[in-house]
Amino acid sequence: MDELEKQGRNDVLRSLASIILFSIYVSVTYHVALGQIDKTKLVVHIVRFLLTLLILYLIFQGYSWARNLFSVLAALGIIMFIPPLFNDLSMINKIPLLSGLVVYSLALYRLNFSANVKAYFNYMNENR
Fold first, then answer.
1. pLDDT digits (tens, 9 = 90+) for 18-44
2. Alpha-carbon distance 28 to 26, whole Å?
3. Distance (Å, whole) CA 17 – CA 101
4. Are the beta carbons of 123 and 5 closer than 8 angstroms?
5. Is the pLDDT of residue 114 over 80?
6. What ranges in 2-90 are assigned the alpha helix state H?
7. Cα of 6 vs its chain's centroid, Å
8. What domain range is 118 assigned to?
9. I want to staple 93 with a disulfide (CB 3.0 to 4.6 A). Which of 5, 13, 58, 89 is the partner?
């Protein structure tokens, strides 16, 4: 693994870690804002989190179908983050939307357009 591929691996890890942290943030703030733990929503959040971990692991392993699936889902998430930004919410309520927009946009860019990450995925596909 050369320096470009190592940098690509590090970029992928940074993107995946930020997505995992954002997923945990969303689940925790939902239950904190609710004031109690809704057991059905908690189960849904745990299943969603485990599926997120699975798809991110498959992306890290270099599966292009997982990267394509994530790209479509991230693009849909970005599209869903934009309209609430123009509502009459206070700025404090828009911070999670803005952070989600930044996290998913950077991950989408890195996983699809970064030269370092492309080199890493090519390396992973050659050595699989």
1. 999 999 998 888 888 888 888 898 899
2. 6
3. 15
4. yes
5. yes
6. 3-34, 39-60, 64-81
7. 20
8. 3-126
9. 89
**Which residues make Cβ contacts (< 8 Å) with residue 94, sequence separation at least 6?**
84, 85
Lowest mean pLDDT, pick from 12-16, 62-66, 92-96, 115-119: 92-96
DSSP label of 109:
H
DSSP string, 35-46: SS--HHHHHHHH
Q: The tokens of 128 are what?
A: 């699989």
Dihedral sign computed on CA atoms, order 100, 101, 103, 107: positive
* CB distance 120 to 54 below 8 Å: no
In terms of pTM, does the model score above 0.70?
yes
| Per-residue b or e along 26-42, where b marks 16 or more CB atoms closer than 10 Å to that residue's CB | ebeeeeeeeeeeeeeee
Number of domains in the chain: 1
Quickly tell me which residue has 């109690």 as its tokens: 36
Helix axes 115-126, 64-81, angle to 10 degrees: 150
- Over residues 77-100, the mean pLDDT reads 88
The structure tokens listed for 114 are 């970064």
Residue labelled with tokens 């989408």: 108
